[in-house]
Write a structure and sequence with these properties.
2 copies of one chain form a homodimer. Chain A contains 12 helices and 12 strands. With about 350 residues, chain A is an alpha/beta fold. Chain A binds a DNA duplex (30 and 30 nucleotides) through α2 and α4.
Chain lengths: ~350, ~350
DNA sequence: TAGTAAATTTTCCGCGCGTAAAATTAATAT
DNA sequence: ATATTAATTTTACGCGCGGAAAATTTACTA
């Protein structure tokens, strides 16, 4: 590219021999200009790598091309993966995603929503903290910006919800565990979002349906250090002999990873082979679950389906507006991933 | 707050009974206006929650208050943590951080830098991909924007580099391993960044210094699925009997986690107790290393020191400009974290 | 070749705010 | 009370672009 710097679209238009409004049109949609002019612009584009000023563009557009993506905790690889795939879809759809992590704190979540509002995004994909979220503020936000909730539901909020059908996935696991050994007890922490509650309910339901007595073990713990909660809670449970079954279904994989660490520390062999005395299963197919010792039997969520589904849903709302009717919920099925821990 | 919507600063100024330029001044620095006017503005601020239009502000400011944060792979909890702490520091310093992940791909990294350039940030904290990075493009970027490199160095680029002193940390581990058992071999994958090379060199140096013969085992593998590379590579190494020592020092924790999974699958007991036949150590103190089975002995990086140091360095460059002299490098010490795997 | 539709250019306005300079007002000192 | 200084207001301009309307050119059809 040539050395000369281009200051604005005016200058660039001059260099390419096209009028500024046409250049503007090109950047909004390259196919909206004649082929010959498109080529002239693109030729100039290679000589001087010019980009329209981001702020000027967004100030003047009726609606920006920005998409906000909010996850509760990006240090959780599950959400990192969700965010990544959603980002991809947004870019493919011609939008500019900005990803934010609430870092597990309500204050952060609120602050992010305020920042997002000032970005006037075309839409937002929000995986909320869940129970900790400030319902009022989220609601006010959803009134202003087309928002699709992902993963964790907040009843009645947003234009749509995309997530996993816990009442399909958990029974799948419960039935598998009952079929292959002792019926499981359910290991959980204080629920951070509705999924946790749904999973417990689904566990209880399917146990009863199978004629077994459900048994829920809840351990203390706050925040998003799930492994740590699973670990220290697991130690206590094991030491106090609170385990009512030699099969444990954990509310999620991270909790299971912590529980496995506790079992290891107490010299308890985990797995499905003969010398093992404990089976542990999780839920979510966390990216690291393949590499635990033993590898974790779990329920996989279809990242791709969730991200594609949520982005497509949002795009519809952006194009056609948010319908005033009842909120549309989409629940995907989970799949059983049999590994060696249960 | 009152129901009425404020459209712009003009309207808000009218409501608060202050002139618009004064309101503008207030938002740039609340202490720059008289106390009485500050109170009037803040009072109005509570009634109508107004925020200056983000795009208009940034279009007109000579220099934005934006800070770009780029990490190579946010699904790696190590980088998620680095990004999180750096974000925090930037906010505390009155800046608006935007975090991006290259997702392990050069194309992404380049695209992010182009996006960042169009954001005209006050500065950028860049944890580059490393070897895969497009040196030319990064260099061009650094010429335009004050950039501090973090974690992974690219020789001579950027205004400063903040990272870990691998030549301090690795010998620490090697000496520990030699002191407590069989001298380690070094398990690595094709290096993705200079740290990997430095660690290998540091391993070889310190082994020789201690009078032992270094032995490096490199396994194949591309991309950022380190656990998977460590796992499949580990299986091959174990099956082929390529292991020259019963102590393995892995180039990083994620590789070690994969290797441990392979050892587990082959029925090899890992740890420092009597019944174990293999010791495995890592590097980085990955957030999950506490919860592996057995828990991973590793080197911890001081996240806080790195993030604080890098942000402070950047702030200096933003205020005083980038000095033309030699680049300043800051290397922090790592600390030995003894757990039960080695 | 005239006729028509599509693409492009011209012209112009506005977005919401930063910022500079000059005029005014308020606070402080003498 | 007057001078001095600081804070504020007024006035005015510009940032870089989107977008609408009208004028013009171009491409295509019959």
């Amino acid at each position: 590219m040539s050395g000369q710097k281009i200051r604005n679209m005016e200058e660039f238009a001059a260099k390419s021999g096209v009028s500024r409004p046409t250049v503007s049109k090109y950047f909004n949609d390259p196919t909206s200009v004649r082929k010959s002019t498109r080529e002239r612009i693109e030729e100039a584009l290679e000589r001087y790598n010019f980009r329209p000023n981001l702020y000027a563009v967004n100030q003047n557009r009726r609606l920006t091309k920005n998409i906000g993506i909010v996850v509760p905790y990006v240090a959780d690889p599950f959400f990192a993966e969700i965010a990544r795939t959603i980002e991809r879809r947004c870019i493919d759809a011609g939008f500019s995603p900005s990803t934010f992590s609430s870092h597990g704190s309500v204050e952060h979540e609120i602050e992010i929503l305020e920042t997002l509002r000032s970005m006037r995004p075309a839409g937002v994909l929000l995986a909320p903290l869940g129970r900790a979220s400030d319902r009022k503020k989220v609601e006010a936000f959803c009134d202003d910006v087309p928002t699709v909730l992902v993963d964790s539901n907040i009843e009645g909020l947003g234009a749509a919800f995309i997530g996993l059908d816990n009442f399909q996935s958990v029974p799948l696991m419960v039935e598998y565990l009952c079929r292959t050994g002792e019926p499981p007890c359910f290991f959980e922490m204080p629920p951070v979002n509705p999924n946790a509650n749904k999973r417990r309910s689904a566990y209880i339901q399917s146990m009863e349906r199978l004629g077994h007595t459900p048994h829920v073990i809840r351990v203390e713990g706050q925040g998003w250090d799930f492994e740590d909660i699973g670990y220290s809670g697991g130690l206590r449970v094991l030491d106090n002999g609170e385990l009512s079954s030699r099969t444990v279904l954990c509310s999620n994989d991270r909790l299971a990873i912590g529980f496995m660490a506790a079992a290891y520390e107490r010299g308890i062999r985990v797995g499905i082979t003969d010398e093992c005395t404990l089976r542990i299963a999780g839920h979510d197919d966390h990216p690291f679950s393949r590499f635990t010792c033993p590898s974790l039997t779990t329920i996989s969520q279809d990242y791709d389906a969730i991200s594609t589904g949520s982005v497509e849903t949002l795009m519809n709302f952006i194009e056609d507006g948010v319908p005033s009717g009842p909120r549309s919920d989409t629940l995907f099925d989970g799949h059983l991933v049999m590994r060696s821990s249960a």
